[in-house]
Design goal:
Length: 330
């Protein structure tokens, strides 16, 4: 009959495994404490506030789901949410432009580093500064109108880029595309340069052209970065704030996005409960959009993955035939 040794906590703590456990716990404790204090606890409080009719200071009245119902009943909230479609379309254009330029600049191009720097530079500029730049840029008769007049356009025939409600949101979306597409492009280039060149060489042996190489090799290889950029772009589209707030002085002329409207309801109207409900609904929309994107990419890249398997089998058969032919010659 074996005799078990009693566990000595003090000895274990002084040992190597105990010291490692202490270090791991201490290193985890600080970030976890910060995360709980500044993220999860405020979120829990905001979720609780969404069930109350309340201001920042004063009495609170529990009203259940009324705030959530009011978000969809209020025309200004629904219209602000609908404006996110403009920014989503802009995000698609932004990613397509970034992917196209990244595919070109990932190869050796004369002056490629200069163009990369120029395109990435807007991302480094503060969003408030960009807002003031484009506020001056779109002003009637100033920079943009002057450039268009150089190409033969008459000033009288040009729209008011910030006052005309049929074009002002498109103008604001263009500022976001200009600011963020350089960052997407750099991420795409980094992912593309990590693709093994032997894959391209094997594809060329199979007779694949540049488009087929991009579709079946490059794009499936960087699908993680594509998905990440798309999720970040959609999230940014739903939470657009700086362009309408700075350029349009708080979302005038029908440019108030969901975030701008939530800011107005929370800080100007002091309807904290309603603003909290808007924030929770925005979180659910972002979560649903993320799930749909993952399902979409899983379906889109399915054919590409099957093609990779078939291409690998064809290469193996081709190499086997080549070896057999060389063996017969020998």
């Amino acid at each position: 009959m074996t005799r078990t040794t009693p566990f000595n906590l003090r000895k274990w703590l002084r040992g190597r495994k105990g010291q490692q456990a202490i270090i791991i716990v201490l290193f985890m404790a600080v970030p976890l404490a910060l995360l709980l204090t500044f993220t999860y606890f405020p979120f829990a409080e905001m979720f609780k506030f969404s069930f109350y009719k309340m201001k920042y200071v004063g009495e609170r009245e529990f009203i259940g789901l009324k705030n959530y119902i009011d978000v969809f009943k209020r025309d200004d909230c629904f219209q602000a949410l609908w404006l996110s479609v403009y920014y989503m379309c802009g995000a698609v254009v932004q990613l397509a432009l970034a992917l196209y330029l990244a595919a070109i600049l990932s190869f050796k191009v004369k002056g490629g580093n200069f163009f990369k720097g120029c395109m990435f530079f807007p991302y480094l500029i503060n969003g408030i500064a960009i807002g003031f730049i484009f506020k001056f840029f779109y002003t009637r008769g100033f920079v943009f109108d002057t450039v268009l007049q150089w190409f033969g356009f008459e000033l009288e025939n040009l729209p008011y880029w910030l006052k005309d409600t049929s074009i002002n949101n498109v103008s604001l979306v263009a500022t976001s595309v200009w600011k963020y597409f350089g960052n997407n492009m750099v991420l795409f280039i980094g992912a593309m340069m990590s693709v093994d060149n032997e894959l391209y060489e094997a594809a060329m042996l199979d007779g694949a052209n540049k488009w087929q190489q991009f579709k079946y090799i490059m794009l499936p290889s960087i699908k993680t970065i594509v998905m990440l950029n798309l999720i970040m772009s959609i999230t940014g589209s739903l939470s657009a704030f700086e362009p309408p707030f700075v350029i349009m002085s708080g979302g005038a002329n029908g440019t108030a996005t969901y975030f701008v409207k939530m800011h107005e309801i929370a800080h100007t109207s002091q309807k904290v409960g309603l603003a909290s409900a808007m924030a929770i609904i925005l979180l659910l929309i972002i979560f649903a959009a993320t799930v749909l994107q993952k399902l979409f990419f899983k379906y889109v890249f399915k054919d590409g993955e099957d093609e990779d398997v078939n291409a690998a089998k064809r290469r193996e058969k081709k190499l086997a035939r080549e070896k057999a032919r060389l063996k017969r010659r020998g």
